[in-house]
Amino acid sequence: MSTEHSSTEHTGTPASSADTVAGLLGQIADVGRDPKRGGYSRPVHSDAEHTLREWFREQAARRGLDVETDRNGTIWAWHAPGGRRENAVVTGSHLDSVPGGGAYDGPLGIASALVAFDRLAERGTGGARAIAVFGEEEGSRFGVACLGSRLATGAISPERALALTDADGRTYAEVAERSGLDPTHMGPDPDTLARMAAFVELHVEQGRGLVDLGSPVAVATSILGHGRWRISISGEGNHAGTTLMTDRRDPMIAAGALVVRVRDLARAEPGARATVGRLQPIPGGTNVIASRVDVWLDVRHPEDAVTAALVEQIGAEASRLAADEGCTATLTEESFGGTVDFDAGLRDRLAARLGDVPLLPTGAGHDAGVLNAHVPTAMLFTRNPTGVSHAPDEGCEDTDAEAGAEALADSMELLADTASTAPERPLP
Ligand code: HGY
Ligand code: MN
Ligand code: MN
User: Is the CB of 145 under 6 A from ligand 1?
Assistant: First the structure.
């Protein structure tokens, strides 16, 4: 368990802070800006994400929290009166981003957590609480979403996680080790899960639901089941100038046709969403007929069986389109998480506590969706005026960001009250 404690052990004295969510986000506004794509590119364990991790550690230490990094690279910032880390109300999110992502997907949850902790300290709210920063939530570098929370809960084996590779062929093991982690210690962390009485994640809304409802905050009802598959189409690499059109086995032709078929098949399935956002020709030269094209597929639907059937249909189409070009196609699942319904009782108690705010489903995945199977879990959404996400136009008004942090503090206070009267969850 690799840990480095902050210089300030928890002193118990509430930290006074005039920080606002917008102010905290302003401190990291220039970290990981992507001049080519626009927005931010902060892959897990990149310099940019490490800078954000350091920023978080400093902010947490300033608040007298006890900060450490666990075996899976998740950062934990503890407020534990008397050092008792049990029955804790935990909040958290992520700092890694998609390529060219917005400023709020992940960091809004972390900045809101820091401000919520300031509010709870001022209120003198008792009980243990923590902020968790999970790594590789987006799965943008190593292909599996929510890698940190999946490792902690055993949803992915350390062997599979450590063997994952990024676009440069580096394994997660190599990158994690270079980031100061011990790959031989990675894996399920039941002790930490047992310390958690509840988990509540605040996230920027990735849609326009709250804009249309005229509310700054909502409580989540569910997370749409979603997965990622890689379709590799292989043909014959050759010269663009010397190869007659009749002599080609060009996988790019099958890939292009497949992208349109994915759209058509998803349109034909009510409630489905299927996307090809990433396509990689090998070798990728302008004057080169590709030998292989890797096509990444993201498919989502409320019913997991429908997702599976749609993926099977797309796989069959890929094989047919490949064969038409004298090519072959393979389909490999990289990551899947079924639809998650948050506990209705907890959800409704939070919504009532927050003034009967709206209930909203989300089509986006979150670490809360992984933890939900292990710990009583809820999610809050803060309004996004553009409704856009995974793109630079993602937005959140400063006043709504403050309202979100206040709602997070209120939620954690309610959960702390519940935890203080609940039977202690037995530590393993
Ligand atoms: O892809 C998702 O739904 C999430 O943003 N990781
Ligand atoms: Mn995201
Ligand atoms: Mn996110």
Answer: yes
- Model pTM score: 0.94
Report which ligand 1 atom has the smallest distance to the Cα of 138: 6
Q: Span 222-237, mean pLDDT?
A: 98
Q: How far is the CA of 245 from the centre of ligand 2 (A)?
A: 41
Q: Is 137 in the pocket of ligand 1 (CB under 6 A)?
A: yes
Helices 107-123 + 398-421 axis angle, to 10: 60
Q: How far is CA 335 from CA 167, 264, 288, in A?
A: 16, 23, 31
pLDDT of residue 4: 43
Cis peptide before 14 (omega within 30 of 0): no
Does residue 365 line the site of ligand 1, with CB under 6 A? yes
Q: Which residue among 226, 275, 300, 367 is best mutated to probe the pocket of ligand 1, counting the most ligand atoms within 8 A of its Cβ?
A: 226
- Helix, strand or coil for residue 167? coil
Note the pLDDT tens digit of each residue in 150-170.
999 999 999 999 999 999 999
pLDDT at 18: 77
Q: At 92, which helix (H) or strand (E)? A: strand 88-94
CATH 3.40.630.10, the chain: domain bounds: 21-224+339-420
Please tell me the total number of residues recorded for the chain in this structure. Answer: 428
The protein residue with its alpha carbon nearest to ligand 1, atom 6, reads 138
**CB of 364 closer than 6 A to ligand 1?**
yes
* Ligand 1 close to Cβ of residue 340 (< 6 A): no
Q: Is the CB of 368 under 6 A from ligand 1?
A: no
Integer Rg of the chain from CA: 23
Residue 43 CA to residue 59 CA, distance in Å, equals 21
Give CATH for domain 21-224+339-420. Answer: 3.40.630.10
Report residue 300 as tokens. 């989502």
Q: What is 225-336's CATH number, 1.10.3720.10, 3.10.20.310, 3.30.70.360, 3.40.50.2300?
A: 3.30.70.360
Q: CATH 3.30.70.360: which residues of the chain? A: 225-336
Answer whether 136 contacts ligand 1 (Cβ < 6 A): no
> For ligand 3, a single-atom ion, which residues have Cβ within 5 Å?
105-106
Residue that is written with structure tokens 């897990």 in the block: 44
Average pLDDT, the chain: 94
Encode pLDDT of 106-145 as tens digits: 999 999 999 999 999 999 999 999 999 999 999 999 999 9
